[in-house]
Design goal:
With 146 residues, this protein is mainly alpha-helical. The chain is 68% helix and 3% strand. It starts with a strand and ends in an 8-residue tail after the last helix.
Length: 146
Amino acid sequence: MYEDGLISIEAYADAVEKVGAAEAESFGLDADEFENLSEMIEESGSAIAGLSDDLKGNEREANDVAKALLRYDKAVQSITENSEDWMKTLKSGNLQDQAAIIEDLEEAYADLLDLDMGVLSDDFLTNADNLDLMTEAANGSEDAYN
């Protein structure tokens, strides 16, 4: 496995897989679903519409793409289930109720845009116009990203 300060390809691949699975779980993603998608991306490359042949055989990059796709899917599901309630809360003006949904909003934005949590301000998160745009984006509007 290790020789003269070098690591075998198998050991490296195993480490990349474990790090990827741990990172996926840290975002609340299913590790098995992540691993299956990552492997499919790595094996298929550009055979999947919109992906590059550079992903073929590149486990680390395939992990990143799989994580982003699964986070996006998780965000769309959360937005679909909660956006009406979130909007009512934001428009209510009740600061306690708004504070109660900040973490959920932050997680949805972070997952949708593949960002780390904590980079968006509370002002951004509690802006109803931003929630409208996030809902449009989750519903497939390309204009919402511009």
